[in-house]
Design a protein that fits this description.
Elements: E1 4-9, E2 15-16, E3 32-36, H1 38-44, E4 82-84, H2 86-92, E5 96-101, H3 111-124, E6 129-133, H4 137-149, E7 152-158, H5 163-171, E8 175-179, H6 183-197, E9 200-201, H7 210-224, E10 232-236, H8 241-256, E11 266-272, H9 277-284, H10 310-320, E12 323-327, H11 332-343, H12 349-363, E13 372-377
Helix pairs in contact: 3-4, 3-7, 4-5, 7-8, 8-10, 11-12
């Protein structure tokens, strides 16, 4: 690991050696950061070194923890596009609204970034059996990358996880189990089975490398914006690894001197009011979130009643001058339809929540009409058929079609 110096607890700052297997901090049971020699990187990795590299997340290898590139487990994690959405923006009175479409990644969601890195590091460290609790896309991503690496995967998911996610895991050869509980209940099962089953727990933030994969969202968008970051980033938050990872990326880029003007965006943690522990903690001024009982939302990726990295999420949004806000659960379908029908961008329910939050931020005059606003679409809408209820008007081929009175959908 030429640029990794050590791992560090995000809570108590205890240090751990790089190149060894680590989960949570053994002193306080909190997540670990990967730390780099940024001064050395600054000297040996100039911006111009990116020119001509393949358009995948692995183009940032100097800022990633992989020691030997031959260990990389990849399904070609392409750079995802940033789409100007002017018609959608006009609905909010915004001149510069954009969507970064993570649905273009393998397995159809941003989870590919984290699992590509976690499985790569598992391979590099000699692990053979991986387990994860999931509310949907993380399980499919782990199953796919484990299959690619020739490793065993074990997936535990709430019984009401979208059926497409269940089938995806099975198709990729994972050992999949349905649990009559929420994702944190699944997480307890993974923890309880660790000693007997001998698997490594790749739950959100319970190992240090998924966050490094998610960090590439921040590195990538910074490069796409020519190193001048947008004013606002709205991000759907369940476990929060993406938001935390991006904020880490911006800090590292700032230390490298790559950000123009040193300006960083306001980070907005977006949740459904059916499961909004970060919003409640933010509004109360707390550093840790209380578990939300009876969490319920069709945005399955947001149905995380208590996140292990809650304080890391709250630190990031507060440091950025941002906030946490919820959107009404009963408006998710409306926002999905608006984005899809005005722009052809198939946003997932989690991203629809971001649009509901944006509507409130604009109405409260927190977001100005000329500011640059970036919303993350974290998954493909096609993976959530349960979130769209329709009944199509029927045509009887035995009768002539009365085109003038054709019913509209």
């Amino acid at each position: 690991m030429p640029f990794v110096t050590h791992l560090e607890c995000a809570n108590c700052a205890a240090e751990y050696s790089a190149g060894e297997i680590h989960g949570l901090c053994t002193k306080c049971n909190r997540p670990l950061w990967v730390r780099y020699d940024l001064e050395l990187i600054r000297r040996e990795f100039p911006q111009k070194a990116l020119f001509g590299r393949p358009p995948t997340l692995w183009r940032y290898l100097e800022l990633l923890p992989v020691e030997d590139p031959l260990n990389i487990v990849s399904l070609t994690e392409t750079i995802t596009p940033i789409l100007p959405v002017n018609r959608l923006g006009s609905e909010f009175g915004l001149q510069n609204l954009m969507i970064k479409d993570e649905s273009r990644l393998p397995t159809g969601s941003f989870k590919a970034r984290g699992m590509a890195m976690a499985v790569t590091m598992a391979k590099e460290l000699g692990l053979k059996r991986l387990a994860v609790p999931t509310a949907g896309n993380a399980g499919g991503a782990l199953a796919a990358y484990a299959a690619r690496a020739g490793l065993e995967s074990w997936v535990f998911m709430p019984e009401d996880t979208p059926i497409i996610n269940q089938k995806e895991c099975v198709l990729h050869g994972a050992n999949v189990y349905s649990v009559n509980g929420l994702i944190d209940d699944c997480g307890k099962l993974v923890g309880e089975g660790k000693s007997e089953m001998g698997w490594f727990d790749v739950s959100t933030l319970k190992e240090p490398y998924r966050i490094e994969g998610k960090k590439t969202m921040g590195l990538e968008l910074a490069e796409q914006f020519d190193w001048e970051l947008p004013d606002w980033i709205l991000y759907p938050t369940g476990g929060g690894t993406g938001l935390i990872g991006m904020w880490k990326a911006f800090g590292e880029l700032e230390a490298l001197g790559w950000l123009k003007g040193g300006k960083k965006p306001k980070m907005v943690s977006c949740q459904s009011d059916g499961c909004d522990p970060m919003v409640r903690a933010f509004e109360s001024g707390a550093r840790h979130a209380k578990r939300v009982n009876n969490a319920c939302t069709i945005a399955s990726g947001l149905r995380v009643p208590k996140a292990v990295g809650d304080f890391m999420i709250l630190d990031a949004i507060r440091d950025s001058g941002g906030l946490a806000m919820s959107s009404p659960e009963n408006e998710i379908s409306k926002w999905m339809h608006l984005s899809n029908s005005t722009e052809g961008v198939a946003v997932c329910p989690e991203t629809a929540v971001c649009l509901g939050v944006l509507d409130q931020l604009v109405s409260q005059v927190k977001v100005k009409p000329n500011e640059r606003v970036l919303v993350f679409n974290t998954g493909a809408a096609q993976k959530y058929p349960e979130s769209v209820n329709i009944e199509l008007p029927k045509l009887d081929l035995s009768q002539p079609v009365d085109w003038a009175s054709l019913p509209l959908v």
